[in-house]
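# step 3/5: fold
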Amino acid sequence: MSVTTQTAAGAIDRAEPLVDLKGMWIGLAVLNGFYLVVRIYEQIYGWRAGLDSFAPEFQTYWMSILWTEIPLELISGIGLAGWLWKTRVRDMSALTPRQELRAVADNAAWLVVYAAAIYWGASFFTEQDGTWHMTVIRDTDFTPSHIIEFYMSYPIYSILAVGCFFHAKTRIPYFSKGYSLAYLIVSIGPFMIIPNVGLNEWGHTFWFMEELFVAPLHWGFVFFGWMALGVFGVVLQLLINIHRVIGKEGVELLTEA
C-alpha cells in the first residue's frame, strides 16, 4: 500500500464516528414497536379466537402465525450468522486502534438490543403466560400465549444472541482468538430455554401443572434465564479491551472528564 493510500485510508478512518448508536436506536425502535403491535394483536384476538383450538378462527389467527414464524426465524438466524461470517475482518492485525474501539462500541450496542429482546421474551411474555395459565384452561400446547412467547420471542432473542456472539468473534481481536466463556454463557444459556420448552410441555401433558409454577419442570426456565447475567462478564471483557487500546493515560483522561 502506498503512502498516499495509507493517508487516505487513515483520513476516512478518523472521519467515521467512534461511537455510532444510530443502529442501536433503530433496532430498539423496531423491536419495541413490533412487540407493541403483537401485544395489541393478542389483546384483540386472544379472547376472540384463541380459546378453542378446534375452531376455524384459531387456525386462521394463531396457527398461521406459528407456521409462518418458525421458518422465518430459522432463515433469519442462519442468514445473520452467514452474513456476519462472510463480512468478517480477515486480518485482525490490520485493525487500527480506532477501528477496534468502534467494534467494541458496536458490540455493546448489539448487547443493548439483545437485552431488550431478553426482557420481552423471558420477562414480559413469560409473566403474561403465567397469567394466561391461571385464567384459561388450555386444550392444546399451542396456546396464543405460547405461540408468541415460546415460538416468537424466544427465537428472536436467540437470533440476536447469535448476532452478538458472531459480531464479537469476527470483528474484535480479543474474541477472535478463542471462545469467551462469558459470551458462551450469555448467548447459549437463554437459548437453552427453547429445548426446555419441550420438557415443560411434556410435563403439562402428563400432570396438571397449570398453576403450579414452582414445579421442578419449570426450574429450567429460571436456571437458563439467569445465565443472561453472564453479560456482566462480557462487559468486563469489553472494558478490558478498551483499557488495552487507549492505555492508562486514556483511562485517566476519561475518569477526569
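# step 4/5: annotate
The radius of gyration is 22 Å.
# step 5/5: archive (pending)
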